[in-house]
């Protein structure tokens, strides 16, 4: 005999509400990236998500409130992805097996930020408004600190595993690499380059950084930036 499990009405309502919020956030990410926060309207977000204004205001007090939550979601997603990549590399033994071209491993961690054009536009929009809004600015800086910490840890682990000497502390190496990634991804997007080209150019720049910050033992070949 099959037992019927009843789901409390309150739980079903909560799930529907969360699904609605997620659809609104997904739609808002696209609209904000395409049009910018100021030009994006609540109506455009609702139309993209397939909901009414009533559904919007039952979940968010204002467009700014939605934008702030979206910024937090982007931050959490990027940080969680970075940590998952580091954990995967460690579990697969890649940190122990990597050659002096340790950059390839670091790039895999940084690739959490290797977003497509829409994501790059959204993050650029978030940065612009973070400059004007102290609350959003604090959230954005906290995001960057979490990502930098994750990248610094993998840089440290690579150096320790291969007995490499860094010319700068791992924390500063991570900060430098993230700065290079952000700059190259934005420049490539502005230039209208396709995603693969942006990734390639960014990798080339990161390789140059690696050559500057990693002291390669005399008996091992230097990583190439070509």
Fold and architecture overview:
The protein has 226 residues and is mainly alpha-helical. Helices cover 72% and strands 2% of the residues. The protein has helices at residues 9-35, 42-49, 53-57, 63-91, 94-97, 103-110, 117-130, 134-161, 170-190, 195-213; strands at residues 165-166, 214-215. It has a two-stranded antiparallel ribbon. Helix 1 packs across helix 7 (117-130) and helix 9 (170-190) runs antiparallel to helix 10 (195-213). It is elongated and about 65 Å long. The N and C termini lie far apart (67 Å). The mean pLDDT is 78.
Mean pLDDT: 78
Indicate the radius of gyration in whole angstroms: 21 Å
Low-pLDDT runs: none
Number of helical stretches of at least 4 residues: 10
Strand content: under 5%
How far apart lie the N and C ends?
A: 67 Å
Shape: elongated
In spatial order, strands of the major sheet run: 1-2
- Fraction of residues in helices? over 70%
Secondary-structure element series: HHHHHHHHEHHE
Describe the sheet with the most strands. 2 strands, antiparallel
Find the count of extended strands (DSSP E, 2+ residues). 2
- SS class: mainly alpha
